[in-house]
Structures are given as structure tokens and as C-alpha cells.
Specification:
alpha+beta, Adenine-n6-DNA-methyltransferase TaqI, Chain A, domain 2, 3 domains, four-stranded antiparallel beta sheet, restriction system
């Protein structure tokens, strides 16, 4: 007899140590199954009839069953036990699956045999996702039907065991039915637990797709750890108890995460309140640094935090307004004059202002703000354009070439990796970079943004990249953060037209609606966003470290618990 059983109290003690690990509950569920099939979940009882005796009776029952279709019974499954997976507890033994069940093939159907009425045809999709059923009017052998309570196994790309709980159905050939050879000597539910554990083991090993090629012979040779029948029943009862506990822990965790999300939102509101001035901001930032690491447990929360900051920024809710500053309406007049003068000085044809009358959101913006089309905010000598259509192969000492995958907001290499022939690049001189431009992906990953560093001056861009060069009278940093906000990203997604792949054309880019504050406020917004993003960086680094630590602790505790006796598990979890 082993020293104690793995109780609900021990599971709770272990969970308390690892509760904040992202995958704690799924890992604990797998852990319970691992313990179950290794004889470490419940006590052994020396008075239980050894499993070897069960196996003898099962073999006797198998010998009495008539060979199917005139074939001799295949005994190869019994020869599969060459390498046992672990040392079994006293009273246990090992058996090949084919010694315990019959593996019965389903039926393959032609499309014309699948009808709208008759006997249901159970397909793999009906087990996992699909509620659409086909039917058949064929009369088949009983072996081709499954009844409620039958143990079945889906072996296609989506695979795993099921206890069928539906009506009498014909099972498809991607499903095996696994009737027990002797129901009096084997628990169907224990075998189901083993197959769950084995399926997960196959998936985690990365061989899930190989189940498409799983043969009946391979299935029959799966090695099953077999406890005494009484212990099988105790194991099933204990697994059900612990899985129900995991269900409750999962529900409690979901409620806890919801509370944390609300508290995080409240902390963010306090941090980003418009009335916070430069003197009080550090106080609130310190509070956030102390509070948010406790509340923030998932990467998606930090991503949401970053996007919330940007959204507040472009709606005039991140910094206070100053009524003495030149309003955006006056700034736009100066920008218009600047664009005309610059075009004239460069002797280029001035592009007409982009018609833009959508002021539907103006009421929600501060009085000093305006909304303007981005096409009216760019340098008239470097209008919004995309670049080289067919760049050709790399050439030595060619022109540096910027592709969508090169777009980044920081951490740029000195030069882009790809270079193209000068004669291919020459016709696209208008899209050569000067350095400092905003780059927007317009094909494929619509809305992805980057900045051209000064070291990329002279490079050209791909057809999938649009160059946006702001006028000097606005903050290019503010324009970039506005384009990162949900306001612009949603516009890009909705404006995309689909050809061979998603594409955003220049005309749609030119009318991107930019909420424009006074110039001085643009600079204040950029400064505060930088401070808040730095705070997010700290939170992210802290979360990464904490997540790694939790994951390692969970791994260590489970490894120790799985490798030792239940008594050792209690010490590991204490």
C-alpha cells in the first residue's frame, strides 16, 4: 500500500503555490491524469485481486469469442510489451490495448450514400465542432453502430476518446469503436481516462498530425497500465472529484480575473486623468507601479493598457488643454500656407487639398482640436506614395530596399537587408526615403507601422509600403501615435478592399481622419505617452520575469510530485 492518496486538500495546496501561472489549471488537470495512470492518485490495497488475474480472465473471454470473418485472432498486440513506460505499483500489470478491447473500424461513405434522413452517421466533426448531420438507410452489422455509453475514438486530425452519449448511430471510418472484451473485468471509464492521458501525451509530443495515419494495428499496441479492478473504480471516482474541484477553481479564477480587469481599468483612469499635472503625475505613476504589477497577470492586459493610452491621447483626454494656445484651426491655416509655399519653392505642382468634411466626432473632442485628412498634413514634395512594384533579385552594392517585414518603430538595423538593381529603382525616385518618414503597410498586414531611421536615407520602398512624410508644422511623433491608435487602425481595417490579398490604396490613406490638437499640446501628449509607455515596458518586463518564475515553479512542483509518492507530493505542495 502506498503512503496516502492524492486528496483534494493536496491539490488545493499545490494550486495555492502556482495559482497565478497562466496554465496552472490545465496543467493540474493533466497532472491528475498522469498520477491516475501511474498508480499515484489513490492508495493501493493489498487485498485487491491483482490485475494479472483480470488479464487472464480477459484473455479467456477473448479466446471464447468467435474469430471475425473467418480470420484467426491477431495476437500481435500481446507481443507489444517490450518496453514498459514505468515501474508499475504492486498489483498492477501492463497490457496492450488490443488485449482489452476490440478495435472496430467505422464505415467509409460515398457522397450519394449520405442522406437527409434515416440513421445518423456519426462523423468526427459531430464530436468536436459540427452540428450538421448526415443520415443513412443502409442496414449494417451491429459492429458498425455505436450506442449511448460506447467507448469510441476519433483518429483523424482532430482526435481523442469519447463516451458516446447520443442516439444509435453509424460511426464513420475516422472513428473506432472500442468495446471491452470483458466488461466484468475492466472499467470502461478507467480506460477512457487512460486514452485521454495518452492522447494528450501524443499531442504534446508534437505528433498529433500523425494520428491521421494511425493504424488499427498501432492502436492495438498502445500499452495500458492496468490496476486491479477495485482500484480502477477508486481512480475514476478520485479523478471525477479532482476534476470537479478544478472546475470550481477555474470558475473562481475567471471571477478573480474579471475583478482584476476592473481594478486595472480604475487604476488606469486615475493614472491618465486629464487634470493630472506634471507635479502630481510622478505620484500617480509610482502608485501605478506599485499596484498594476499585482493586478496585471496577462500580456493581453498590458497590450490593452498601451492601446488605452493611445486612445485617450487622440481624444484629448490624456493631458489638460491650455486655452491660451493657438487652436488647431489656426494651425491648419498655417499648414495650408506652408504646403503652398513649399510646393512653389520646389517648383512642383501643388496637390489640391483632400476634400474632407467628416466632422462627426468633433463634438467629442476638445474645442481647440480639429479633425483633418492626413493627405493635407504631408509634405507636398513627398506626397503619400508606395514604391517599387517588381524589385527583382538582390544585387551587390544595390539600392537598399524596405519591405513590409522591415517596418519597426525602433531597433532598426543600419540598413535594410534587401538591395535592388539601380536600373529597377530609378523610375521610382519619388519614393526614395530621406529619413524620418512614417511607413505604413498597405498590403497583407494592413496598418502595420514603422519609422524610417536617418540611416535609411536613399533607400526605396516596396509596393506593400506607403511613405507618409508629415509637414514640419506638426509633430511627426504625435502623428505616429495617432496612427497607432484604434481610431486609425480600425479605419484601415474597414477601408481595406480585398483583391488577391487585403490592400489599402493611396486614395483611402489620404482621407485617414487625424484628430489634431494645438501644436504645443501635441508635444505634451507625446511626452506623456512616452512616460506611460515606459511604465508599460516596466510592467511587461516584470510580468515576463514573474511568468517565467511561476512556470518554473509549476514545472518543478509537478515534476517532483509525479516522480515521488503521494507523501512527497504533500511536502512539495506545502
Amino acid at each position: 500500500m502506498r503512503d496516502g492518496a492524492f486528496t483534494a486538500e493536496r491539490l488545493l495546496a499545490l494550486y495555492d503555490r502556482v495559482a497565478e501561472a497562466e496554465d496552472a489549471i490545465p496543467r493540474l488537470r493533466r497532472f491528475v491524469l498522469d498520477l491516475a495512470v501511474r498508480g499515484k492518485l489513490v492508495e493501493q490495497d493489498a487485498s485487491d485481486e491483482p490485475a494479472a488475474e483480470l488479464l487472464k480472465r480477459i484473455a479467456g473471454s477473448a479466446a471464447q469469442q468467435p474469430a471475425r470473418r473467418g480470420k484467426q485472432r491477431d495476437t500481435s498486440a500481446a507481443n507489444a510489451l517490450e518496453e514498459l513506460p514505468f515501474d508499475a505499483p504492486d498489483g498492477w500489470t501492463f497490457a496492450a490495448l488490443g488485449q482489452l478491447v476490440r478495435v472496430l473500424n467505422g464505415r467509409a461513405y460515398k457522397q450519394q450514400e449520405l442522406l437527409s434522413s434515416g440513421t445518423p452517421v456519426l462523423r468526427v466533426g459531430n464530436l468536436f465542432t459540427s452540428n450538421h448531420w448526415y443520415y443513412s438507410d443502409l442496414e449494417l452489422d451491429d459492429d458498425k453502430y455505436c450506442e449511448a455509453g460506447d467507448l469510441i475514438y476519433a483518429w483523424s486530425a482532430s482526435f481523442g476518446p469519447f463516451i458516446w452519449d447520443g442516439p444509435r448511430a453509424i460511426f464513420h471510418y475516422h472513428i473506432w469503436k472500442l468495446p471491452l472484451i470483458s466488461e466484468a473485468d475492466l472499467s470502461k471509464w478507467y480506460l477512457f481516462l487512460f486514452l485521454q492521458q495518452k492522447t494528450r501525451e501524443i499531442k504534446e509530443a508534437g505528433h498529433g498530425i500523425s494520428m491521421v495515419h494511425m493504424t488499427k494495428e498501432k492502436m492495438e499496441k498502445l500499452i495500458v497500465p492496468l490496476p486491479p479492478l477495485a482500484e480502477q473504480r477508486r481512480i475514476v471516482a478520485k479523478v471525477n472529484e479532482l476534476m470537479a474541484l478544478c472546475d470550481r477553481l477555474e470558475g473562481a479564477r475567471a471571477m478573480r480575473e474579471a475583478v482584476r480587469d476592473r481594478l486595472t481599468a480604475a487604476t488606469l483612469t486615475r493614472l491618465t486623468a486629464p487634470e493630472i499635472d506634471a507635479e502630481t503625475f510622478p505620484i500617480h505613476a509610482r502608485f501605478a507601479l506599485q499596484t498594476l504589477p499585482t493586478l496585471t497577470t496577462r500580456p493581453d492586459q498590458i497590450k490593452t493598457l498601451r492601446q488605452t493610452i493611445l486612445n485617450l491621447a487622440v481624444r484629448g483626454k490624456l493631458v489638460p488643454q491650455d486655452p491660451t494656445e493657438e487652436p488647431a484651426a489656426e494651425l491648419l491655416k498655417r499648414i495650408g500656407e506652408e504646403r503652398v509655399a513649399k510646393a512653389k519653392g520646389a517648383k512642383v505642382r501643388a496637390k489640391r487639398p483632400v476634400p474632407f468634411a467628416d466632422q462627426t466626432s468633433i463634438a467629442s473632442l476638445p474645442d481647440s482640436w480639429r479633425i483633418e485628412a492626413i493627405g493635407n498634413l504631408v509634405d507636398p514634395t513627398a506626397t503619400i506614395s508606395y514604391g517599387v512594384l517588381v524589385p527583382g533579385p538582390d544585387v551587390t552594392d544595390g539600392i537598399p530596399f524596405v519591405r513590409a517585414q522591415d517596418l519597426a518603430l525602433s531597433g532598426h538595423p543600419e540598413r535594410p537587408n534587401k538591395t535592388i538593381a539601380p536600373e529597377i529603382e530609378a523610375p521610382y525616385a519619388r519614393t526614395r526615403l530621406r529619413g524620418g518618414e512614417i511607413l505604413l503597410c498597405v498590403v497583407g498586414s494592413i496598418g502595420k507601422l514603422g519609422v524610417a531611421p536617418q540611416s535609411w536615407a536613399g533607400a526605396n520602398i516596396a509596393r506593400a509600403v506607403a511613405r507618409i512624410a508629415p509637414v514640419e508644422s506638426i509633430s511627426s511623433d504625435y502623428l505616429l501615435l495617432a496612427m497607432r491608435s484604434d481610431l486609425i487602425q480600425t479605419y484601415c481595417a474597414e477601408a481595406t478592399r480585398t483583391l488577391a490579398q487585403p490592400t489599402l490604396n493611396v486614395g483611402l490613406i489620404e482621407v485617414l481622419p487625424i484628430p489634431l490638437p494645438p501644436l504645443a499640446e501635441q508635444h505634451r501628449i507625446v511626452a506623456k505617452v512616452d512616460a506611460l509607455m515606459s511604465l508599460c515596458d516596466q510592467l511587461e518586463a516584470s510580468l515576463t520575469t514573474t511568468t517565467t518564475t511561476r512556470s518554473r515553479l509549476l514545472e518543478a512542483l509537478l515534476h517532483e510530485a509525479l516522480g515521488g509518492a503521494p507523501g512527497a507530493q504533500a511536502e512539495a505542495a506545502a
